[in-house]
Amino acid sequence: xxxxxxxxxxxxxxxxxxxxxxxxxxxxxxxxxxxxxxxxxxxxxxxxxxxxxxxxxxxxxxxxxxxxxxxxxxxxxxxxxxxxxxxxxxxxxxxxxxxxxxxxxxxxxxxxxxxxxxxxxxxxxxxxxxxxxxxxxxxxxxxx
Length: 144
Fold this sequence. Notes:
Elements: H1 2-9, H2 30-33, E1 37-44, E2 47-55, E3 66-74, H3 83-94, E4 97-104, H4 108-122, E5 127-131, E6 136-143
Parallel strand pairs: 3-4
Antiparallel strand pairs: 1-2, 2-3, 4-6, 5-6
């Protein structure tokens, strides 16, 4: 799943495959070994359809009981069918506290998706932020 995600995301990043044809993800094992990291697979009708990696921290904002969507991926064939929106709400409900969702400024599809999802989930009660030194923008909100 991470290779599919990395391939998809490569249009917005400078990442390339290594000499063995893999993108790799240096922290993937940490999600099964470290406290405060939570891996989830997305399934549709029992079939793998994506993944979500959640961290209990905030990378750009100071939040109480912080959580962060580190990675979020839905395979193209399942997009625009409500899968991502439904999964997001389940994840938010599962982890009460502050939420930070950061994304690359040039990733316009993700920006549109997260703005819709966060606005709907919070009834418009969220804040935006920009970390210009890293070309990152994002959303924060509390779900208590």
